[in-house]
């Protein structure tokens, strides 16, 4: 029997959605959109805010920046081959940054959902238990 570590390593817990159509981009094509692994999602979350201290009089300044195009580029795959649509991440970001904000945002929200963001901890545990399968204790 495999160790718990090996079972965790082998778990197929990254969710995806097939049959995503974006007719404005490629009529008739079907894409697979994948959630991101924990490390990628946390790196994205950590990059959203950058806090800098200006001085005592002004306090803390917070600047937000969006990296939605990057997240979509990491998650968008050709459904037939399973290959990334944008294997060159920088090129993907450049291309997606010039596409419809509505489409990119919709894909981002799907990646966010598939990555389990927005669920409370209890729901995440319940989902993980269901995904791990029966017969485990």
Order of helices and strands: HEEHEEHEHHH
Shape: globular
- Please mark out the parts with pLDDT under 50 across 5 or more consecutive residues, or reply none: none
Provide the gyration radius in Å: 18 Å
Helix coverage percent: 40-55%
CATH hierarchy, class = Alpha Beta
State the total count of DSSP E strands: 5
Cα distance, first to last residue?
A: 14 Å
- Biggest sheet, in brief? 3 strands, antiparallel
CATH architecture: 2-Layer Sandwich
Strand order of the largest sheet: 1-2-5
Characteristics:
single chain; 5 strands; rbstp2171; alpha+beta; 137 residues
Describe this structure in words.
The chain has 137 residues and is an alpha+beta fold. It has one domain: rbstp2171 (2-Layer Sandwich). Helices cover 44% and strands 20% of the residues. The strands form two sheets. Strands 1-2-5 form a three-stranded antiparallel β-sheet. Strands 3-4 form a two-stranded antiparallel sheet. A hairpin with a 3-residue loop joins strand 3 and strand 4. Helix 3 crosses helix 4 and helix 3 crosses helix 5. The protein is globular. The mean pLDDT is 84.
Brief summary:
With 137 residues, this protein is α+β, with helices and mostly antiparallel strands.
Layout of strands and helices, then pairs:
Blueprint: H1 4-10, E1 16-21, E2 30-34, H2 38-48, E3 49-55, E4 59-64, H3 68-75, E5 76-78, H4 89-96, H5 101-114, H6 121-132
Antiparallel strand pairs: 1-2, 2-5, 3-4
Helix pairs in contact: 3-4, 3-5
């Amino acid at each position: 029997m495999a160790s718990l570590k090996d079972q965790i390593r082998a778990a197929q817990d990254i969710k995806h959605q097939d049959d995503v159509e974006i007719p404005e981009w490629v009529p008739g094509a079907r894409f697979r959109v994948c959630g991101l692994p924990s490390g990628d999602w946390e790196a994205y979350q950590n990059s959203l805010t950058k806090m800098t201290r200006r001085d005592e009089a002004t306090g803390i300044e917070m600047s937000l920046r969006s990296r939605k195009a990057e997240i979509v580029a990491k998650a968008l795959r050709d459904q037939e081959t399973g290959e990334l649509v944008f294997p060159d991440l920088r090129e993907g970001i450049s291309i997606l940054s010039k596409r419809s904000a509505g489409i990119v945002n919709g894909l981002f929200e799907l990646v966010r959902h598939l990555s389990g963001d927005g669920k409370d901890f209890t729901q995440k545990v319940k989902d993980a238990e269901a995904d791990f399968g029966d017969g485990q204790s």
